Amino acid sequence: MNTVILSVGQLERSLSQQIQALYYNSLGHRPSKVTCQLFDEKLAIIIEDSITQPEQLLQQGGQRALVEQVRADLNAVMQAHLKETIASILSIDVLDIMTNSTLATGRTGIIAVLAETPQVRNPDSIPKSKHRHTTNGHHSE
Question: What pLDDT score does 2 carry?
Fold first, then answer.
């Protein structure tokens, strides 16, 4: 059996695309950009323009407290879906996930704590990785 091991960049792009699709399919809203970065057994995700149209409308109507509560509830509901998506793409369990959004900038930040560092073709490209310089016992690019 010949399993293809992806590069860090390929995994991060796949995560970005799938998370953007998840937001669109779940909330009917397509963020303008999703950036993912692996750090050893952690994954940082920045979602640009994550605030939905109804939230924007409520905020314009002076309902900031309501928007903050709606956003907190949406983030909480999305966590299970995010865990599933991340675990599926990385083939690693997600131990914890933390999410926060800033209404002023429209960004959502997510930190996922993974059970282990994902196996990649180029482990040297993962900042802070404890597994640097080892892929099947030899250094790889």
Answer: 54
Give the model confidence (pLDDT) of 87-108 as tens digits: 999 999 999 999 999 998 999 9
Main-chain phi, psi angles of 107, to 5 degrees = -105, 150
Residue 70 tokens, joined: 């709606």
Is pTM, for the whole model, over 0.90? no
